[in-house]
Design a protein that fits this description.
Blueprint lengths: L1 H12 L19 H6 L3 H11 L10 H10 L4 H19 L5 H31 L8 E12 L2 E8 L14 E5 L11 E4 L9 E6 L5 H8 L6 E4 L14 E6 L3 H11 L3 E8 L8 H7 L3 E5 H4 L6 H9 L4 E5 L2 H13 L7 E3 L16
Parallel strand pairs: 7-8, 7-10, 8-9, 10-11
Antiparallel strand pairs: 1-2, 1-6, 2-5, 3-4, 3-6
Length: 370
């Protein structure tokens, strides 16, 4: 209820925030699946996660992931003040007399502290992004130089910057970019995050996009964006990276393979197992390259075999051992099941890696523990 009121206040008083935060509008005739499924409860989940870790927020495992996502959406420090104001207003309206002056003050100070932690970390990330070879700050115009069907309802786009055709880009495999398009001509379409599927050091960037039913941005990209089209990109961000990893298990489902495939190419023989779940061969992105690159591969097609068991990660761990780093990407419930089953059999939480694109920042998410 607080979240709904908070969202209503944002839309009523700060419509321009739609260009940053993916908030559904009541005037939309069809609910945007990318909004409803990926971000409609994101802000509320962040607050819950912060409340659960208020005494040690700098050690919250999701802090870097959250800061990176904000950078990819070009969140600025003043946005936090707006969010702080409307969240407190929403709490006052919903909680009424239950929100005593003392409790309100405590929440206000805590939220401002959390904002300061994020602002400082995001500024550090921006500086790092700017210093990298080919780096920049904010959004930058890129032109589509190639588009290729990667699987059923999935398209890969190769992009080069309009302002420099020879720049080579440094980033870490497993990172993503924020992609911004203007669907309505009002500048109020929020960015969406897509994994980079090109290798570092090239003079281009590639993203691979799955068309989501009722997903406005993914539908536009897959159906409308052609060679010569222009999009805006943030620099690469994200902590789903394999720096210093000696042995790894990769587990993905659906379009989540776009996150783990770059790691497979980077780690090569250090990957003891690469497992992927998909509907069929036709929907399996990078299928042939995936099977050729991994020394040990397991593929589960649900169209033939049905859904895999919820503890599939634990079953795999009992086969390959517990002493590897795990990189998991797929639907949020799959990630939660996999991470939870690994924790239950004793895999170190620091060796379980995932990427946040949805509302996983909620109480009970297994990787929020410190």
């Amino acid at each position: 209820e607080i979240h709904s009121e908070f969202q209503s206040l944002l839309l009523r008083h700060n419509l321009e925030l739609l260009s940053v935060f993916n908030i559904p509008r009541q005037s939309d005739d069809v609910i945007d699946a990318e909004t409803e499924e990926l971000e409609s409860h994101h802000l509320a989940g962040v607050v819950l996660a912060f409340a659960a870790h208020v005494g040690h927020v700098q050690r919250m495992r999701a802090l870097d992931q959250l800061a990176a996502k904000h950078c990819s959406h070009n969140v600025h420090p003043f946005h936090y003040l707006v969010l702080h104001e409307h969240l407190l207003d929403a709490m006052r309206k919903v909680l009424s007399t239950m929100l005593t002056p003392e409790v309100q003050y405590a929440w206000s100070q805590s939220l401002l502290f959390f904002a300061k932690v994020l602002i400082d970390r995001e500024e550090q990330m921006w500086r790092e992004a700017r210093r990298r070879k080919g780096g920049w700050r904010g959004f930058r115009e890129f032109v589509v130089v190639e588009r290729e069907k990667a699987a059923r309802s999935v398209v890969s786009f190769t992009l080069k910057p309009l302002d420099s055709g020879s720049t080579k880009f440094a980033f870490s495999p497993g990172q993503y970019v924020g992609v911004k398009v203007d669907l309505r001509g009002d500048g109020l379409t929020a960015p969406r995050s897509f994994m980079l599927t090109s290798p570092p050091g090239e003079a281009f960037l590639q993203i691979t996009v799955k068309k989501v039913r009722f997903g406005r941005v993914s539908t536009y990209l897959c159906d409308k964006l052609q060679v010569g089209g222009i999009v805006m990109l943030s620099p690469p961000f994200g902590s789903f990276c394999a720096d210093g990893v000696q042995s790894a298990v990769l587990l993905s489902a659906g379009i989540g393979i776009t996150a783990v495939f770059p790691l497979l190419q980077e780690l090569q023989e250090k990957v003891v197992l690469a497992a992927h779940v998909d509907k069929s061969e036709e929907t399996h992105v990078f299928r042939e390259r995936f099977e050729a690159a991994a020394p040990s591969v397991q593929v589960h097609y649900t169209g033939q075999l049905g859904r895999p068991p919820r503890d599939i990660a634990a079953k795999l761990a009992r086969t390959v051992g517990l002493s590897h780093d795990w990189f998991i990407c797929g639907p949020s419930d799959m990630i939660a099941d996999a991470a939870g089953s690994l924790l239950a059999i004793g895999v170190d939480v620091n060796r379980i890696h995932h990427e946040i694109f949805g509302p996983e920042l909620a109480l009970g998410w297994p990787l929020l523990r410190v």
